[in-house]
Amino acid sequence: xxxxxxxxxxLSLVLRLLLLCTVATGKCSGKxxxxxxxxxxxxDLMQDPSTLLDPYIRLQGLHSPVLQEHCRERPxxxxxxxxxxxxxxxxxxxxxxxxxxxxxxxxxxxxxDLPEPTxxxxxxxxxxxxxxxxxxxxxxxxxxxxxxPTQPGPGPTPLPPTPPSSTFQxxxxxxxxxxxxxxxxxxxxxxxxxxxxxxxxxRRHSPCRALKxxxxxxxxxxxxxxxxxxxxxxx
Amino acid sequence: MEAFNVIIFHNRFKETCxxxxxxxxxxxxxxxxxxxxxxxxxxxxxxxxLALLPLRTYQSEVLSEPLPLTPESLNVSINSTKQCLHLxxxxxxxxxxxxxxxxxxxxxxxxxxxxxxxxENYSTTVKRNQVLHWSWESELPLECAIHFVRMRTxxxxxxxxxxxxxxxxxxxxxxxxxxxxxxxPLYVFPKDKLVEEGSNVTVCYISRNHQDNISCxxxxxxxxxxxxxxxxxxxxxxxxxxxxxTGTNFYCKGQGDPEGVxxxxxxxxxxxxxxxxxxxDLKTLTCTWDPGNDTGLIQLPSYTLFESFSGKKTxxxxxxxxxxxxxxxxxxxxxxxxxxxxxxRKRSVxxxxxxxxxxxxxxxxxxxxxxxxxxxxxxxxxxxxxxxxSALLCQLQLLGEGKVIQQHNISVRVNGEYLLSELKxxxxxxxxxRCAYADHFWKWSELISQNFTTAEAAPSEAPDVWxxxxxxxxxxxxxxxxxxxxxVHANGKILFYNVVVENLDxxxxxxxxxxxxxxxxxKVTLNQSSYQIYVTAHNSVGPSPASAVAISxxxxxxxxxxxxxxxxxxxxxxxxxxxSRNATGYVVEWCDSPQHLPCVLRWKNLGPxxxxxxxxxxxxxxxxxxxxxxxxxxxxxxxxxxxxKAGYLKELAPSYNPKVNMSNLTSHSxxxxxxxxxxxxxTGFIQGYYVYLKSKTGEKCHRGFEKxxxxxxxxxxxxxxxxxxxxxxxxKDLQPESAYEFLVTPYTSAxxxxxxxxxxxxxxxxxxxxxIHIILPMVFFVFVIMIICYLKSQWLKDKCYPDIPxxxxxxxxxxxxxxxxxxITIMNVNDCxxxxxxxxxxxxxxxxxxxxxxxxxxxxKVGCLGQDNTxxxxxxxxxxxxxxxxxxxEFLSGLAGALSLWTNVCQAPTCCVAVFSHARVPFPSxxxxxLNVYLSYF
Lengths: 235, 938
Hints:
The complex is a heterodimer of chains A (235) and B (938).
Chain A: H1 2-25, H2 32-46, H3 53-60, H4 65-70, H5 81-86, H6 89-110, H7 120-139, H8 167-201, H9 207-217
Helix pairs in contact in A: 2-7, 2-8, 3-8, 6-7
Chain B: E1 23-26, H1 39-52, E2 71-79, E3 84-91, E4 100-110, E5 116-126, E6 129-137, E7 147-155, E8 173-175, E9 186-189, E10 192-196, E11 201-207, E12 215-218, E13 221-223, E14 226-227, E15 232-237, E16 248-253, E17 259-266, E18 273-279, E19 284-290, E20 302-307, E21 312-315, E22 321-325, E23 333-341, E24 346-354, E25 365-370, E26 377-382, E27 392-400, E28 403-412, E29 415-420, E30 428-437, E31 448-453, E32 465-472, E33 475-482, H2 487-490, E34 496-503, E35 510-516, E36 521-525, E37 531-538, E38 547-551, E39 562-566, E40 572-575, E41 585-591, E42 601-606, E43 612-615, E44 625-633, E45 639-648, E46 661-663, E47 670-673, E48 688-695, E49 706-709, E50 715-721, E51 728-731, E52 739-748, E53 751-752, E54 759-762, H3 768-791, H4 793-800, H5 811-819, E55 837-840, E56 870-877, E57 881-890, E58 896-906, E59 912-920, E60 930-937
Parallel strand pairs in B: 10-17, 39-45
Antiparallel strand pairs in B: 1-6, 2-3, 3-6, 4-5, 4-7, 7-8, 9-11, 11-15, 12-13, 12-16, 14-15, 16-17, 18-19, 19-22, 20-21, 20-23, 23-24, 25-26, 26-29, 27-28, 27-30, 30-31, 32-33, 33-36, 34-35, 34-37, 37-38, 40-43, 41-42, 41-44, 44-45, 46-47, 47-51, 48-50, 48-52, 49-50, 52-53, 52-54, 55-56, 56-59, ...
């Protein structure tokens, strides 16, 4: 257990350094709407099952109805839709960032099982960069550390799924994971679109100030702190 | 009966359970078999022998009596990954230190001890303190069944005297992999399976829930297995085939999640082909081969290169290539063995390789042309040196227009250089070089190439010039034409042409024109002097030799009769008769497309000895008339027209017919003419015309016509006009009032024109012209008469029917009035009996006298009526009367009619005349048989 915790900490550290490194080399856009639109588009791009799930199913021969029925997202792999909607913006971004780290590790492990070439990993990294920039914009600081999105989120950092014992189970597991990934990205896109709609309704106020105010006022729900209601099927 | 199977591996390399690993211990064992019926004897024998053993320690190695030994500590373990049962045992023999050859008989049962499925004799040499191992691979996953194992031994050594007896069976050892399973309701075994294409695989499942309905699928296809036990079902797949790299999915599903296995099927590893080695620098060897088809697995086979002389080997990094470092110990011969290996197979190929004989040098580099002139160029290149003293043989090739035109072999150590000569100016060349090992040629290196272009030189030949002279107002206008110089003679890009016009009558007068390229003609207007015109082509280096043309200021003899000729596939063959013995040559000129203006003038120069030639051109087309003019060139470069010729490359049938006018149509003939039909622009020489005549009545063809059938099978008469200049034709001997169709079409040697535009004509009535000849003058005559009558109407009236004098207006009355005679008497009607009725209707003016009585009809015959059906009745009476007339008539045809006439009063006291003139009778101008006139007097 202790070793596992150490491993998790190490992974988290690596991910933070990775993202920081990427962020340090790039430059964030200060335009909220531009950034939000970019995030929405990236989420739309990544929610498309034809980018990852469909090729994986085809490559692994999992297209039968029996197997399709069991290619489903496992509870706890990704935060549920409800949980994401209830999060404050800062917490939402933090959760996104944490989950992206998990996705990156899974994609890396899946590399040889996916058809070449796939841009999924690059997309996730780009999405992570924009999340960082959005977090930075919301906090109103130009210092990347001030808005470091890899701070511990509302709940424990999810672990990558334990690799199953047999190749067959691993295939099903990966299939379910990819399905969950697309579902998660679809929900994230919806939440981000919700931000744009709310912003449109309160156009009289400065978006930046309003966001900051919202960020300060929004307090994470205790149940959301667990991120994903483990054991519940995703909606 | 006990089952007995043997696993055999042919040409297969597979680390299976049947490979034994022998560990040598310090123990030696001797095994004897003990027979149960002889148990007591055996025990005694053993005791006796054991007692004797110390005494026999120093005896020879050949034992006199066998000792029964039983295997001990038999341990059975399961290797699930390899589906192997692993056996480990010892044989207790504390007294002997020698090695013995022994046989171990092993029995394996499945599900229960009595169900023996395997029996095998395993022979080996046993040493002292040795732990023995043996493995067995199960085709059925071990998790799906409990297995039992036992064994017995027998000494099989020549040093041990017979009889050789089996020892007792060991006790059954149980191998149960199901113990380690969890509490899942469904298991499928094996977990993963790597198999070779074409092999057989057995898969099984264990269901913990007996009531669960389990369905199993192989790649989505429902399949049914064989029940092995209450909970266990097995599926045997024979001759499995490769489906995809990620494996073939087999899965079973009950109530819960599916469980399955992925069969990773590998294609059969092929033997490497075309295995060969070579070196580029005598330092590194590169061996290549064709690995054949991919095995289809993510895990690739390994390739190892082994050299037997040095005993070295290397693991290749690529599946089709391997590098080998040549050692410094000057090893020349190498015996390489390439071993390809995967989980299932090992394939190997060998070659014997001499290092010196396999040198394939690297491609030379830095190939550059230098000092490139119009005809020479020096090329340089470099090579990678091989060893310290070895030279390379390099081959330098010069290519022009894609073909090798020069080839030179040069020995090179480091730098190569060669002077290429006999090059053409302004020409692009390619130099390319390849090299081979000079000490032992084996293979050329890769080629390197470099393009270069030689410098320009002045054009080497005068342009081919011709002229076209036209006279405008007596002044010659000369159009000069020249052909572009060929690349061989241009020696560079032609920039402009210089035209120098020299007036021979005024030597000091020179006119120079510069025409920029790529123009190929220019126009010069001259006066009536003689001229010499020089044309030169210029490139960046200088001018070409000049081409001269002489022009006379006066028109030459153009009145040369045109001859005809026929074209052939090769062109137009033509010949001519020289006029002068001093001709310097001949020129034939023509237009390539005479039907299109302006004419694209072409010409061909011929030497003075030529009197015939064949003019050919890619522009010549069939059906086009080409006109050729042959000139003789004098020593003064003056051209004189010799002959004109016209011809067709191939004559074609006329494409259209002349427009024909029809005239002079009578009841028996008509005339056709087509005067404006040009024959020069036709698709062949017009040899004449065909006149086609079709009759509706189908009458016979007339004289000169011949019967023919048209394409629509209709019959027609055809007349042939064989004179192309005749352009009128009279069609005679026609029937009056008949319809005809006619067509005029020209014909050439290739055929006639289109027969699709017949015109119709109908001959008139035979008498109509006579009628016309009569009626028209008559009408004219009547018209004249009418005019005359109109003009002379008063005269006619006076002559024909003068006015009747009115008695009341008579001068006599005035006289009476003047005398005022009271006894003026008016004639009584009753007293006035008309004395005569005159019908005036005939030209002869005959009168019919009628003496009628009052109210009595008077019948008289009258002649024909006048032209206007009128007649006149004149009544002479001396006293005033009232007359009523009534006329009736009848014709021969029975047509009759009547008409009330008129009323008139003749009131004169004296005789009067009542004139009823121009009474019109409404019937045709025929003669009535009777005409009755009734008159009543009042």
